[in-house]
Design goal:
Oligomer: single chain
Distance between the termini: 41 Å
Number of strands: 5
Radius of gyration: 12 Å
Shape: globular
Largest sheet: 5 strands, mixed
Helix content: under 10%
CATH class: Alpha Beta
Number of helices: 1
Number of domains: 1
Order of helices and strands: EEHEEE
Length: 78
C-alpha cells in the first residue's frame, strides 16, 4: 500500500533513500506505525509522536492505503 509520510526534526535523516520524492512510501498491508518506524530504520529508543491524518495515534495503529503520517521526535534540552 502507498502512504504519505513526513518526518520532522532529527527524524528527517531516516527518509533518505526510503521515502520517494512525493513523500510517499510503499508498505505491506496491515503495517502498523511501529512497522513504519522499523522500515525507516529508526531506532526503537527514539521517542516518536505519530499523527495520522492529523490525529494522534499509538504505535500499534494499523495504516490504510492513502493515509498521511507525520512523525515527530521527542526532544529534551537542558
Amino acid at each position: 500500500m502507498k502512504i504519505k509520510v513526513k518526518l520532522y526534526t532529527i527524524l528527517k535523516k531516516y527518509s533518505k533513500g526510503k521515502v520517494l520524492e512525493d513523500n510517499t512510501i510503499i508498505l505491506h498491508e496491515d503495517t502498523t506505525l511501529q512497522g513504519l518506524s522499523r522500515s525507516l530504520s529508526i531506532p526503537d529508543n527514539i521517542g516518536i509522536i505519530f499523527l495520522v491524518n492529523n490525529s494522534p495515534q499509538g504505535k500499534e495503529f494499523r495504516l490504510s492505503e492513502g493515509e498521511e503520517v507525520k512523525m515527530f521526535s521527542l526532544i529534551c534540552g537542558g
